[in-house]
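tool_call predict_complex ligand=pyridoxal-5'-phosphate
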Amino acid sequence: MSAPRLEIDLDKIHHNARMLVELLAGRGIAVTGVTKAALGSPEIAGALLRAGVSALGDSRIENIEAMRRAHVPASMILIRSPMPSQADRVVAHADVSFNTELDVIRRLSSAAREARRTHGIVLMVELGDLREGIMPGDLDATVRETLRLPNIALRGIGTNLACRSGVSPGAGNMSQLTALAESIEATFGLSLEIVSGGNSANLDWASSGADTGRINDLRLGESILLGRETLNRRPIDGLYTDAMTLVAEVIESKVKPSLPWGDIAQTAFGEEPPAIDRGDVTQTILAIGRQDTDAAGLRPPPGIEILGASSDHLVTDSGRCRLTAGAEIRFQLDYSALLRSMTSPFVAKVLKGQSGQIPEAAVLPTTDRFRPIAASRAWRRSSRSS
Ligand SMILES: *Cc1c(COP(=O)(O)O)cnc(C)c1O
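tool_result ok
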């Protein structure tokens, strides 16, 4: 089978999603399944929906469009503030978008009016992580203005923590979000359908028994796909951490010195050249590099150590493992490595599980790997042919 390839186990993804949906249901919280690392795959979306997620959230309109084309039956939320230049597409394909700028909401309003649709808005509030969000003191004014706009429905508020600055969700910021929701409801005499407390980093807070207040939604991506919470990246009990794995192929394996020789200047990517002498090593090169993934986010099997990566070569010390050209090595990934391999046109995506074992048929043909929308057709074709 072709390499490098991402092997995607739909049964494990389904299991992880189901466990989290059930855990949070007990706390009155619904799960929005975040698909931004799924590149619009209707199979992955389907695994999340069968597990009971209430909606799908994606940061890219292209992925939402791909899922729409594949007739994924779900409410779709654009979880990044829309680009004004994409307002028409957002209104046409997303039911709801996350917003922080009135200018953008006005653009969405006119696009929605033209399309004779109603577009839902979740206003994002800044609670300290310093990424997107309206400052709490400006929220009332933004709500007032949003409520005036035609073809726009205010569906709720939300916040995002633990991304840019690693601010942990906890009793403090979560009760502040509840208080903001209650104050909007009282001031404007309305009821907010969605109060979205955050992402996978909120799981510790949500399972701690803390009062969840008005928070009734979490947006989960990494915890579903990789089975880890994201404050300390610990595996979550009962979840698979290997639902998605990356397989790469050996193209050279030789015993070589660990230190380079000759005049030493910069390396291809401006990093420090190898400086520790560990004597001779079994240096094994895999045909995968920075064009395919984030090498720093790969976890090799025991006995193999990653020494460095250039655009197309991953250099490892394979210790006592005797590997020959053509051998395959399987890696676990972190979210950065997962995003990069999912979006790399050079990495084939192979689906397993649910619709049955689909070996060769599910490998995307090379020409279809370059755009999510094209990719989505290939995904569909592969599932049909299985
Ligand atoms: C990516 C993203 C999420 C999901 O985060 P995970 O850590 O993968 O659960 C949630 N909300 C927003 C706004 C995002 O961009």
